């Protein structure tokens, strides 16, 4: 066990290796008698959500369901988990194909977040809640202070609406500008209008994702003023 993996309480080396194995590695190493980390990621995602939900439910007894849901979404979102994965140096441990490596896979936030969830899944299989709760408490819960301080639990659309209405303008209006691709793989471009004027446009795989992107870009513009 390396000094890096000592921070991960998984005693079974095969289980730990599986948690760190991306499917691209197996494509280049068909002789490997191990599965990728996708199933462990699936389990870890569910365990993480349960532990975080219980934590928030107990910590904020007066908060509404909506507020708790927003806080939970911020704690388990890809960007938050990727930051934690980077602090654990998981990028140095992930087994990737040569192609994934040279394309920046070890810094890919989605891949890092997925691997962190797979680690949680492996801890749960090996030790149950007895060990996985302290691990999540140590590495995930501290992110809450930053989320609350910087209002990261509020999505970009909510933040933009608060900002614009505080200036005395009506709520932003979102309009679809373009839809590209077949039904099962569409890409949407949505524009956000502030006080009747086009502000920014965002692109995403759903209308809501595109709206959030447009709102985020509009926020950046207003923050720069």
Describe the structure.
This protein is mostly helical and 225 residues long. It folds into 2 domains: 5-149, Ribonuclease III domain (Ribonuclease iii, N-terminal Endonuclease Domain, Chain A, Orthogonal Bundle); 156-224, Double Stranded RNA Binding Domain (2-Layer Sandwich), CATH 3.30.160.20. 57% of the residues lie in helices and 11% in strands. The protein contains 11 helices and 3 strands. The protein has helices at 13-19, 23-28, 38-59, 65-76, 78-87, 98-102, 109-127, 129-139, 143-149, 156-166, 207-224, and strands at residues 173-180, 187-194, 197-204. The protein has a 3-stranded antiparallel sheet. A hairpin with a 2-residue loop joins strand 2 (187-194) and strand 3. Helix 3 (38-59) packs across helix 7 (109-127) and helix 5 (78-87) packs across helix 7. The longest helix is centred in the first third of the chain and has 22 residues, at 38-59. The model has no long low-confidence stretch (mean pLDDT 90).
